[in-house]
Each structure stands twice: as structure tokens, then as C-alpha cells.
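Worked Example 4.2. Consider the chain below.
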Amino acid sequence: MINRNFKNCLITGSTGSGGSYLCEHIIKRNNKIKLHGTYRSNGYLNYLKNNYKNKIKFHKLDLNSFNKVKKLIKKIKPELIFHIASNADVRSSFDNPFEIINNNNNITLNLLEAVRIENKNSLIIICSTSEVYGNVSKKDIPISEQQKINPVNPYSLSKTFQDLTSQIYYKNYKLNIIITRMFSYTNARRYNLFQTAFANQIAKIEQGKQKILLHGNLKSVRTFMDIEDAMEAYWLTAKKGKIGEIYNMGGNKIISVGEYLSELKKISFTTIKSKINPKLLRPIDVTLQIPNDKKFRKHTGWRPKISFKKSINKLLQECRNKI
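Applying the procedure from the previous section yields the following C-alpha cells:
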């Protein structure tokens, strides 16, 4: 089995919700790695600086600037790149399609082209998403990596561009690229995920700062994994994944959004009343996301370790701490 070692690593969007967790996880897994992170807005910059002094070299950089991206790649010559930067707000993408599509497309193309010119030896992990599959019929469940891509919202369209462009750069320019398509996972730092929105509102209701929990569609069925398992999946992709592969990543727990809300209500300190907010409904929603991730598990040995019960308790407690 492949087992790569890296002296330095670049994480795009390092101060965002997913990027900040990934920074922490990599430091825990390899305390000697030289970690670089790009950021456009501060996000969790101060948190990371306060908790991981001298462990991360931050670069304030708008990835929309090709010349600046190329200059950074030439300067640091990263052995490993996690491309996690993207505007990932699905609901907002319906209202601001040009902004989100244009941003996500440009930053990915700029990164790939900069690596092609300046440092073709970099291993690039493209952090794609299950959203690229769109609405899949029951006969095609569980979803394999061979399933036709069929985006149904502007955000997933931009991720499809990232995904397909990365495939072209691998096939035509021989860049060292692995694509991950992550299914649902908990992330207490990302406010626009429904599970985090639920947990944040429960924390506010417990503290008397809100009366009723508002939600959108509760019928969508997903698999879930904990944030720790998700970050370990990314790390093992870099360590053991096969170059040129596309990997689905999903948890063991299959549950509807409504059932997820019910489980959170059960562990609340108080009774939670909830109602639908039409503004939270999407014009088109992905209703069934259950992956076949056997290939990823076989190639890397990855398995989820955090139980669903522990994961939702962690999520709610982290949101309580924030509130």
C-alpha cells in the first residue's frame, strides 16, 4: 500500500471552516510538516494563530489573481496541496450564481495552471463534493464514482467545473491529481450547513436567545460522518490514494434531515419547537445522497471511527460553546 511522506503542504482557504479543521488535523498527524495556508478573509485566522503558533505560515492571497498564485507556488514549491477553498453556500448560490460560479471556477483554474507552470511535482487533492451528482434515482443508489455528473444548483455547477477541469489537467498535463467527492459531514464552524444551523439554533433556544427553530426541507436522506473522520479521509487520500483516481467518501449512518433534527432535539437541555421557513427552501434540492465508497476504503484503509451519537453531541457542544 502507498504511504507517502511530505515535508511541506499548502492548504487553500486555510482559515475557512473546513480549511481550519484540516490545518489542525494535519498538525496532529505530522507535527514536523511545514504547513502553508492561503486566506482571503480572516475567518479562523486568529484562532489558528493563537493555538498553533509557528506551525502554519499564512499567505493573504486572493486566488482569483493568477500572477499572485503562480508567484506563491514558485516560492514555496509545495509537495502537497489541498484545494479546499470555494464559496460553498448552496442556498446563496441560487441568489448569487455569477459570483459563486465565477469565483470557484477561477480559483481552481488559476491553481492548476500555476502548478502546471511552476511545480508539476505537487500532489493536488481536489476537494470536490457529492453535490456534483445531483438528484440520483433509487436504482442508482448507492452512488458510485461512475455515476453521471448532473449538477442541479449553481454551487454544484461550479464544483463540477473544478472536478472536470482537474480531470483534464491530469489526463493532458500529467499533473498529480486525486479528486475526492465528500458526502455529508458535521462542521460546527460552517454556519450554512443544515446540521450546524440546527445546533446553533438549539444552543440559542437553550440560552433563551431564540424561541423557535426554523428549518427548510427535512425529507432529504444522507449519510453522515464526523468532522474528525472527514479530515482523516482527506489526509489518507494524500498518504495512500492513487494518483488520477476519483474517490467517494461517506459515513456509515444513513438518516434523513428530519431525523437528524429529531436526534439533536433529544439531547437538548430544553423542549425545542420548530417550524418551516420557506426562505430556507431551495428551488431544487438533492434528496438522496448515499455513496458507494468501497474503492476509497480499499485503497486507503479508512473507516469512520466516531459514532453518530458521539458526533452529534460534539457538534451541539461546540455550537453551545460558540453561542
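The mean pLDDT is 96. The chain is about 45% helix and 15% strand. Compare this with Example 4.1 before moving on.
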